Amino acid sequence: MPLHQFHFNASISSSSSPFLAPPSAFNSFSSRHQNFSLPPRDLGICRCVATPQEAKTPTAYKTNVSRNANMGKLQAGYLFPEVARRRNAHKEKYPDAQVISLGIGDTTEPIPDVITSSMSKKCQALSTLEGYSGYGAEQGEKSLRAAIRSTFYADLGIDDDDIFVSDGAKCDISRLQAYVDSSVIMGQTGQFQTDVEKYANIEYMNCTPENGFFPDLSKSPRTDIIFFCSPNNPTGAAATREQLTRLVQFAKDNGSIIVYDSAYALYMSDDNPRSIFEIPGAREVAIETSSFSKYAGFTGVRLGWTVVPKELLFSDGFPVARDFNRVVCTCFNGASTVAQAGGLACLSPEGLKAMHEVIGFYKGNTEIIMDTFNSLGFKVYGGRNAPYVWVHFPGRSSWDVFAEILEKTHVVTTPGSGFGPGGEGFVRVSAFGHRGNVLEACKRFRQLYK
Amino acid sequence: MPLHQFHFNASISSSSSPFLAPPSAFNSFSSRHQNFSLPPRDLGICRCVATPQEAKTPTAYKTNVSRNANMGKLQAGYLFPEVARRRNAHKEKYPDAQVISLGIGDTTEPIPDVITSSMSKKCQALSTLEGYSGYGAEQGEKSLRAAIRSTFYADLGIDDDDIFVSDGAKCDISRLQAYVDSSVIMGQTGQFQTDVEKYANIEYMNCTPENGFFPDLSKSPRTDIIFFCSPNNPTGAAATREQLTRLVQFAKDNGSIIVYDSAYALYMSDDNPRSIFEIPGAREVAIETSSFSKYAGFTGVRLGWTVVPKELLFSDGFPVARDFNRVVCTCFNGASTVAQAGGLACLSPEGLKAMHEVIGFYKGNTEIIMDTFNSLGFKVYGGRNAPYVWVHFPGRSSWDVFAEILEKTHVVTTPGSGFGPGGEGFVRVSAFGHRGNVLEACKRFRQLYK
């Protein structure tokens, strides 16, 4: 499941990640409560979680190996399994209904031929003596690293070897251990607090229409890691240059590291920064991770990258990139050569043109969805800069609205509260879908809310 | 770089892996010294390690984030960088020499067309509306999991959903955190002890000709994890059914978990178990990891798998597979759909035939190398069950022999002592190479040692 179902933004106190000091190295964790919380991270990720009952097996023998107690802190999947459960129940109730899913954020359109042709050629080459290649560099092929730099980071002071090619942003984030579930697994968070629906030791940054979907940094305590996703999923909000300049300054004042998820950058219509590294000084405080998934439909092909500038240093002056490189070399063996051939094709002039056409198609879907809800008098957010429309139903329960839409229109959306209490009263409508389905869904929305 | 450059066998006391309890949960670690040690794990893995000097940059600003002190325990890469340094120096000295590399264990032969054709078709399908697919299951496609089970684990009591498809055994092992460098990074080992060339809190299991390359379990202390690689790299030794039966019993008596690396199983000539699960009771104490890399030349395509039986339980009765599944779902997004299409083709009747032909070719190389050294009066080990020949030069320094062979024959091998002190007096000759190069190298060996 996609990384950018890492919703809203969060900052993490300390870490026991492969490259950050373990919690034990810290005297104390702040665990102040914010008025807004992240969902248990696995919601969109792990669709097959054990319940204690399931876990029991008839086997008598047990090893003497203790389970990692941190695993027990993980909350069972809820949002997407629950959405799926309700969709299935609905299909049983209305076996003949044409159910349309605008819920989960998975790509639906074919990969442009110019890209798949290159991948296909690479596969064929692997069966020839001249074209065969074995192990590649863990950091990715030089040509691809160079193409990513020149395409996305030209004139931003980023070098080719600052780019680490990965099998997807989610995997890199987990290697970074900035990922909430990973953080829980590594024991850097406290228990999940059901009352506030958040893990202890993680500061949740409130992003709502009231604050323009940008946190009040004056109220944010210092943390080691600040995870920031822009354009954001699910709100679709993109931070402005002025906001990101404040974020970088905040990180610098606190000596924090920003992990910036820019996986939707090419979806931006506004003149917002496409990369955190457009902000002066960001190379000293930020890591950026991105992916080909939503640009070229590579959700299944698996290809992404992470930028770790040489200027980013630990408190002892050791470059973060050196340790990240070591972690990548130790825990990863490079992205598939076929996927990398596809990535290289994505960044060719024809590939870029084709990628932008796919993105343009999804943005077209987004406009149709936004126009529909706007014309019905709803307040909608996002959309302009991300393939998600965040529709406001003031005073109503997200799950009630979700159920109403499903019951009356046979369209599956995602209840905002599933992303956390701050999402209450909102529903996320995904723009990933075939045009016909999106048009049909909007026609039904108009009938329901006319 | 390949997982099975995880040399010899090691057992690890406790763990702070994603699914094992952190060291803090243990009162004490055993750190008894064995007379044999593993190399610093990154040797074959990380070819770009920072030296403190390199690490320094002119940047003034530092974050307040502490570096993970465990990273500092990692030893700089030595063996393969050093082998490469000497090879390059040799090339400068003899610019016209035809240098042959039988050092590093990377595949050299093309991937059979029946396999690449399926991958190519999958790529083309991704550019069609019908053939496009997005996110797949983190655990891998049902059809591939079923094919792996029926091909490698028929009648062994393994279910399809015990199989977790990965982007390579190395990556899965790192997720398992049984991998030595990962273990160090997660803080489960002590400092590297230069005197004995080993990390504290890791028990090194002595595998030499004297004990038939199988450890004396009566001298082995109890550990949580026992990492066992058979057929072994670099010795090429494959454990017998009787030895593995003792290993399983040893694990059962101690309540340990065996992580069994069987990545060379199809190279076996002897009638040894291809899987640890051929041993009764193994499903209650073992995890098995394997890969398509050395079977189908997938070192760059990236595809492997790990088997975690439901019967394997933590001390509290919780199934290890449930937590491993959660880790995979959290830290991984599934292997590339293209690689999985290739894996499925590998396991078709034609694919299996083609894979065995490639393996047969490398086994042919191995025989040529073994015959050469045998006829020259050397004692050679391995070979019969793995693509590595372990040649004994009693009383001589591995590095001296390596240098002699390189100087006199322009052939690059790997000095045994680079894998650890127990390898002193041995040289590893890899069978991964084009036939012409192997024949030429052997011709030169005959001239040198006639």
TrEMBL record, chains A, B:
Keyword Transferase applies: yes
Keywords on record: Aminotransferase, Pyridoxal phosphate, Transferase
Record InterPro entries: Aminotransferase_I/II_large (IPR004839), DapL/ALD1 (IPR019942), PyrdxlP-dep_Trfase (IPR015424), PyrdxlP-dep_Trfase_major (IPR015421), PyrdxlP-dep_Trfase_small (IPR015422)
Named cofactor requirement(s): pyridoxal 5'-phosphate
Lineage: superkingdom: Eukaryota
Single annotated GO MF: transaminase activity
Annotated Pfam families: Aminotran_1_2
Entry keyword Transferase: yes
Domain Aminotransferase class I/classII large stretches: 202-445
BP-aspect Gene Ontology terms: systemic acquired resistance, salicylic acid mediated signaling pathway
Family named by the database record: Belongs to the class-I pyridoxal-phosphate-dependent aminotransferase family. LL-diaminopimelate aminotransferase subfamily.
Name of this protein: Aminotransferase class I/classII large domain-containing protein
